[in-house]
Model the fold of this input.
Amino acid sequence: MEYNTTLNKLILPEYGRNVQKLVENATAIEDKEERKKYIDGIINLMGKMYPYLRDLKDFKHKLWDHLVIMSEFKLGEDSPFPAPKTTTFAHEPEKIPYKSKNFRYKHFGKNIVDMLKYAVEMEDGEEKKLLTALIANHMKKLYLTWSKDMVTDEFIFNKIKELSDGKIEIGKDIVLSDSHRLVSSKKKQQHSQLQKQKQKYKRK
Done:
């Protein structure tokens, strides 16, 4: 019996072990014409695994690049496209730093901070109060997306005060949406998006 821990590491796990074995078999075929037919069969199989991606630009090129990578670049000369280079994968990609090094509460996002800055500049009144309430509700929804724990209105109000450097304080007369309702709304939205994607792929 074979265990995954004793087998070679999958180079591109999304294609599975069977496809990787087929690619390994292809590298052992010496006859160029025979190898081409064998590889064409693998490319067709890889394409059928992800039919909804066929409309993407250079779809065939991407499949060939993946095949070359799975062959550990041994089948690069067989590709009808410019094959990827081993040097591209020799080093880990550089990390992209945040534009703002001192950005607090990254799970709320920079847009929230910008919106609060805008609210700070507004004159006191119903319009400012409404905008602040909308920002608070959105922050609560973002927090629930990032954390499984429920969150109180007071917690969100305190974060708004911190992020606005104490310039915005929300009164007790503002009541945010219920946490369970926001979570339920998020799940319904995700389910609706998933159903739309399924219908889209079925039509193709």
User: Anything to note?
Assistant: The mean pLDDT is 82. The chain has two domains: 4-88, 106-180. The CA atoms of residues 187 and 193 lie 10 Å apart.
